[in-house]
Amino acid sequence: MTGSTIDRRHLLASVGLAGLGVAAAPLLAACGGSSSGTKGTGTGTVNLWIDITGDANQKYWDDSVVGAFEKANPKITMKTSYYKGSDLRTQVQTALQARSGPDIVRGPSATQTIAWSKANVLADLTPYSKQWNWNSKLSDWALKAFTFNGKLAALPMRVDTMMIYYNKTLFASKGWKQPTNRSELEALATEAAGMGITPFGSSNVDWAAAAEWLMTVFWNHFSGPDALYQALTGKIKFTDSVFVDAVALLKSYFDKGWFSGSVQKYFSVPSAEIGANFGKGTVAMIPQGEWYMSNVGQFFGAKAGNNNAWDWMPVPSLSSDVKYGTYALGIGGSFAINSASKNQDAAAAFLNWYYGDRTAALKRMADVPATYNIPINFKDSEIPSSADPRAARVLTELNKAVDSGNYGYVTWTWWPPKSDTFVYQGFEKVLTNAMTPAQYCQQLADLFKQESSSGNLPQMMPRKS
Amino acid sequence: MTTVPVPAPSRTSVARGRARMRLRRGLIAWAFLVPLLVLNVLVVLGPSIATVYYSFTDWSGIGPANFIGLDNYVNAVKDPAVRDALLHNAIWFVLFLSVPMALGLLGAYLLSQVKRFAMVFRVLYFIPYVTASVVNAALWKMLLSPDSGIGHYLGTHHAWLGDTATSLYSVNFVVDWHWWGFLAVIFFAAMQSVDPQLYDAAKVDGANKWQQFKSVTLPGIRPTTIFIFLMTIIWSLKAFDYIYIMTHGGPAGSSEVISTLMYSQAFNNYSAGYAAALGMSMTVIIGIVLAVYSFLRKKGWEE
Amino acid sequence: MTAVLTRDPVSTGKQHGTRRGPRRAYHFPSYLILVVLALFAVGPMVAMLFNAFKSNSQIGASPLAPPTSLSLHNFTTAWTEGGFATTMRNSVILVVGAVIGTTIVAGLAAFALSHLNVPGGGGFIAYLFLGSAMPVQLFVVPLFSLWTQLGLTDSLFGLMVIYWATEAPFATLLLRSFLLKVPRDFVEAARLDGASDLTIARRVILPMAWPGFLTVALIVGLAAWNEFFWAITFIHDPAKRPVSTSFLAFQDQYSTDWGLTSAAALFMLIPVVLLFIALQRRFVAGLTSGGLK
User: Fold this and answer.
1) Torsion of CA B188, B92, B288, C165, to 10 degrees
2) Chain-centre distance of CA B19, in angstroms?
3) CB-CB under 8 Å, A418 with B269
4) Partner of C263 for a Cys bridge, out of A452, B42, B86, C52, CB 3.0 to 4.6 A?
């Protein structure tokens, strides 16, 4: 008699249990725990997700990187999936959390790799490093940046620095010289603006974090690397006036309309348009990273409809404390192995070839500007002559900077993750006058203190005294 | 219900028999809902329960999650970014509910007046709706660019998406553009089924076009209007794709709505637990909106 | 009456032309507004159409002008580089699967909610409304974890199931309002004849309500074709990617190749438009005969 009622209650109860059970599964998966990956046999298929866009670039990767590796290691097959940079990190992170995803993880910059490492989703590369003696092949500072709690979590993917690209033909035609200090830079900018030429081209439309490039430039070349080192190691705070003034200086350039013409245009003009104007000569300079070198060429020359050429120069020193020829330094991106990968040895074999085969590595650096600049140890004389001289100069200048100690710190490598996000998110508010430079630095300092006390800082590259 | 001849039953056994029938019918009815229910539990409810759990933790989006009680919710209440996002949601809601419907009714009404080319217009109006959001967003991002977009041809260099004052309204404009044609086509067909004699009667009473619209057309399409209204409410609360692609919620959070804020907190700020709390809050708000709506309906709004 | 350019005082809702001839002049303002609205609706698409035929330097020079020559270069390049042959096939599979699955699931549920006495049905309907309004970005990570454990990632079927779950609530509500129109007498008569509920569904409801099913099929199919958020999260194997990813292939953080992107957009758009033109009468009739009860 009450049989049916119990049935219905059972039905509802079992639905509820099913729901809980189904919900529990992802929770259990999310509770971290040990990796379920295996070393594998050192052969088979290795999956890789990477943010290389553009048909030509992808063909190069397929033929000259993957192709060359597979020829040297015929038992391993690489399978590459291509993504847009802004999507890749979230996709990879979601997959890692679910204990799936590619065997080789193209990870974010060092500071964000800490978070992944702490979550145990990346395999410990220390055994491989010992086995293949990576310490002798890669730059010490780059490896240390990815070593947490004694474990090597990832390998540094690309050496990053900031510089200023300029329209060489335009400069020549106006008789402009490369500025080496702040007054020269400001005089140049004023003159350009007076002629209706936009001094600096920049936009955050296609890369939301673009502001951190600019802050990197100003903090390194106005506040100076020594001050930054002290702040990053906790000896002074980010609220120190040397940092606040840097923010204020950058803001003042924006307010003068020197960046893309106005703050609003910085927020809405696509980088392709800025590039096109740069090629045409209506934008004089673009402060950008070395990675831009593999893309800037498309805006110059016959195919782009002009007769102009580009070149790059070091960022002028914006204060008397900073030497000219200082380069902010860091690592953009990393290669790691998924701790849930079932083929870790084979993945490691790829990494070993990528970093270990110097001839192949140097050839890549010569073929494609910037993209393949890995922090391996090499002499200037080893750079192939086929390299574009502008690209080769990046390599030689950075070698010099590291040797002489004239290097600084880029935010996306040396700042802890949440602080790094704040650098560009908060700066938008400074630009729209919703926050003063002092408030910005105060919030940054607070966030930094929080993160450093929870141990979320990478190992700093030390100063050379 | 079928009547089964039962020999002289007692009252209780009749009642019990009926009850059993009702239960069986109820179960059979629910059996038809099982596929939908299973799918829903698997894809929506299950992960949502996980999200509820995460909202009480300090989960960064990757790795372990530690219980922190109501901290996320408390912070959400204090967070000015949340307040701004809710305000933007409200503005969005009002605009999205009014502009497409007004345009849709206008277009539909005019279409019902003309004899030729109705089909052509219908197809043209529908095209923005059938275009993928990624396509529309990319297209309008180009069209709204200050120096080379439409503005350039109209003589203005205003940065629609770059000005904090206009960013939200500009994206809303694009979404309204995407949606109104769909409504126009639906309203048009609904208007077709309005009895023409009612119009004649109204004309005899001396009504002009506007009065006819108000007294004949609008009541005649009321069920469709109600349905469209509800659909629009549901759609407005989603509003993610376009904002995410066109402005990322910027500049400086001026076009941020709760769904984009949630996403940004989860994936850019490593505060997935906080994002989960925001999501739960949003669900509660939606629930309240829908409850108010159904309350108003019961109060005689429809009949 | 004189042809004054004011609102036509003699307007009707009548469908077929009893009012042709000299009165046509009165409709001019209506036509004008309709044309303006049409330009508003498709103007941007026209810009995109133009750009598909121009090279990038031409687009850079004059983004909104018509092409001087009709070069098909962008189309051929976009087709091969975007892998449209693969992705379109995948999307067609997705669409067909999503439509079939959703109509079955929603059809069953809608039948129950309209013709059977479902205890607690009102609450369930409210729950469906709530569910279809929630922001789905909320639970992508737990869902991805679950799908990984069930082995449903990187599979068109797995994505299809997600579409069933996300589209079925709205489809159910829509179908329910159609099914409510099927007269109860028919259903009662069939029941009196001893037909089971399932038979009733098949023999009575379906033949009468199939325009509603077509409408739902079109809405669900459209959603499955255009969807990209779930697609890029759950499908990583390039061989299984749907057409929306082909569209995104030509944009990166330094530039958007507008020529290729416009051509890709047209590839995505034209099949849908053609389908709609072919089926528009049915589709629209279906949508309007469903008000919400």
Assistant:
1) 70
2) 40
3) yes
4) C52
Alpha-carbon Rg for chain A, nearest whole angstrom, is: 24
Structure tokens at B100: 């497409």
What's the rounded Cα separation, in Å, for the pair C255 and A203?
12
- For chain C, helix (H) and strand (E) counts, in that order, are 13, 0
Residue B7 in contact with partner chain A when CB distance is under 8 A: no
| Distance separating alpha carbons of residues A460 and A225, to the nearest angstrom | 12
HSE toward the beta carbon, residue B134, CA cutoff 13 A: 24
DSSP one-letter string for A301-347: SGGGT----EEEEPPPBSSTTS-TT-EEEEE--EEEEBTT-S-HHHH
The tens digit of pLDDT for each residue in A388-443 reads 999 999 999 999 999 999 999 999 999 998 999 999 999 999 999 999 999 999 99
Per-residue pLDDT tens for C233-257?
A: 999 988 999 998 888 888 776 677 8
C262-290 core/surface letters (b: 16 or more CB in 10 A; e: else): bbbbbbbbebbbebbeeebeebbbbbbbb
In C68-77, which positions are buried (b, 16+ CB within 10 angstroms) versus exposed (e)? eeeeeebbeb
The residue with tokens 């126009």 is B184
Contact C161 B114 (CB under 8 A): no
For chain C, which domains are there?
21-71 (no CATH), 83-289 (1.10.3720.10)
CATH architecture of A162-326+410-453: 3-Layer(aba) Sandwich (3.40)
Q: Which of A84, A145, A119 is nearest to A334 (CA)?
A: A145
For chain A, list residues with pLDDT below 70. 1-35, 465
* Nearest CB neighbour to C42, from listed B124, B149, B186: B124
In angstroms, how far is CA C175 from the centroid of its own chain?
15
CA distance A312 to A197: 18
Q: Could A267 and B45 be called an inter-chain contact, meaning their C-beta atoms sit closer than 8 Å?
A: no
Spell A233-250 as b/e; 16+ CB within 10 A means b. eeebbbbeebbbbbbbbb
pTM of the model: 0.87
Residues of A in contact with C140 (CB under 8 A): 94
Tokens of C40: 């508003």
Q: What share of chain B is helix, strand, coil (3-state, %, to 5)?
A: 75, 0, 25
Find how far residue C159's CA is from the centre of its chain: 17
* A44-159+330-404 is classed CATH 3.40.50.300: no
pLDDT in tens, C88-101: 999 999 999 999 99
The alpha carbons of chain C give a radius of gyration, in whole angstroms, of 24
ipTM for this model: 0.85
Out of A26, A86, A207, whose CB is closest to C146? A26
Q: What is the largest CA-CA distance in chain A?
A: 100
